[in-house]
């Protein structure tokens, strides 16, 4: 199916893009990034924006690299960029694992990191990463610039804190220390499908092997991905064991509030949280 008619704006700079968006946003003008979510929605007539501000020609949005203690990712960096570690240490390896769960290769070559966050599908991998890692989003408009924490940026299914005239320019993800261990587990109906449930765990252990710090997040189940503070508190100070992972899985299942299929999704949460903890704690840290 073809998309409904629209006017195609192709700014060459971010300043030009925000000026164009400011002019067309009141008529439901939208940003076009990789088009892997927006164009199917237009073909299905779920969205009919009369103006598209295509950001694909803006070089600065396609750059990424490590600056200081963080990975800075331009909004237009394609998913495939993360197939090889984009950052040193555990963060690069973690992202290289997560990206393989995003759709299929052709979609990964066009779909963008920022587009995934702006689309805010609760079953997408990058929003979960952003929340668990405490990423910061840089939103730019003709009115200026502001920075938002990922947890404030993601508001609900397909809903973010971005105003209609704002463009997500980039995302800053703090690097993980070399002794951090991580585990990512996802259940999807078929390879490349959106997640029915996923869990991301990042752990640090003390000299005695006890869990000194834990970040445990789930996605694909609730309206937005989130960290489970009660499960993090429960495992902290404990020595990893199969019994502890099972208890954490049960606690996570009880703590989550699925949008649908509550019994089934809770069972998935129990499994993915317990497995992600197991794979994190059995991983060899880079510098233990
Ligand atoms: C068959 C299929 C399977 C998929 N499976 C998965 C999957 O398993 N996991 C997953 O995470 N994703 C999946 N996707 C979605 C894919 O990752 C998309 O690339 C992503 O959701 C949107 O990125 P995009 O660059 O294509 O954005 P677009 O489609 O161009 O835009 C999406 C939305 O975000 C807005 N937007 C985009 N960029 C910006 C920006 N910089 N500033 C402001 N607004 C912006 C657009 O206006 C639009 O509303 C799948 C897609 C398809 C077609």
What does this structure look like?
The chain has 288 residues and is α+β, with helices and mostly antiparallel strands. It folds into three domains: 7-54, Uridine Diphospho-n-acetylenolpyruvylglucosamine Reductase, domain 2 (2-Layer Sandwich); 59-174, Uridine Diphospho-n-acetylenolpyruvylglucosamine Reductase, domain 3 (2-Layer Sandwich), CATH 3.30.465.10; 181-282, CO dehydrogenase flavoprotein, C-terminal domain (Enolase-like, domain 1). 33% of the residues lie in helices and 25% in strands. It is built from ten helices and 14 strands. The chain has helices spanning 14-24, 38-43, 89-98, 105-110, 113-119, 125-133, 150-153, 229-235, 242-255, 262-282, and strands at residues 7-9, 30-32, 51-54, 64-67, 70-74, 136-141, 144-149, 154-156, 159-160, 167-174, 181-187, 197-205, 211-219, 226-227. A five-stranded antiparallel β-sheet has the order 4-5-10-6-7. It starts with 6 loop residues before the first strand and ends in a 6-residue tail after the last helix. Flavin-adenine dinucleotide is lined by residues 30-38, 40, 55, 75, 102-103, 107, 111-112, 114-116, 118-119, 124-125, 162, 167-168, 194.
């Amino acid at each position: 199916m073809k998309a409904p008619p629209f006017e195609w704006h192709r700014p060459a700079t971010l300043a030009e893009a925000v000026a164009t968006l400011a002019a067309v946003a009141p008529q439901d003008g939208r940003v076009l990034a990789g088009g892997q979510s927006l164009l199917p929605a237009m073909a299905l007539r779920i969205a009919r924006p009369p103006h598209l501000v295509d950001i694909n020609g803006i070089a600065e949005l396609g750059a990424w690299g490590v600056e200081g203690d963080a990975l800075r990712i331009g909004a237009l960096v394609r998913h495939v960029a993360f197939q090889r570690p984009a950052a040193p240490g555990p963060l690069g390896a973690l992202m290289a694992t997560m990206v393989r769960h995003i759709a299929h290769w052709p979609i990964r070559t066009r779909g963008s990191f920022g587009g995934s966050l702006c689309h805010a599908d609760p079953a997408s991998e990058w929003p979960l990463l952003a929340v668990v890692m405490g990423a910061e989003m840089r939103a730019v408009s003709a009115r200026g610039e502001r920075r938002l924490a990922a947890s404030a940026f993601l508001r609900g299914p397909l809903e973010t804190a971005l105003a209609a005239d704002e463009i997500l320019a980039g995302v800053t993800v703090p690097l993980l220390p070399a002794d951090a261990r991580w585990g990512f587990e996802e259940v999807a109906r078929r390879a490349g499908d959106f997640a029915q449930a996923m869990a991301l765990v990042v752990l640090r252990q003390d000299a005695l092997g006890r869990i000194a710090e834990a970040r445990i997040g789930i996605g694909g189940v609730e309206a937005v991905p989130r960290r489970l503070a009660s499960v993090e508190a429960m495992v902290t100070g404990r020595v990893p064991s199969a019994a502890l992972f099972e208890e954490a899985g049960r606690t996570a299942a009880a703590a989550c509030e699925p949008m649908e299929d509550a019994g089934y999704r809770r069972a998935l949460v129990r499994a993915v949280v317990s497995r992600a903890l197991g794979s994190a704690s059995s991983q060899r840290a880079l510098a233990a």
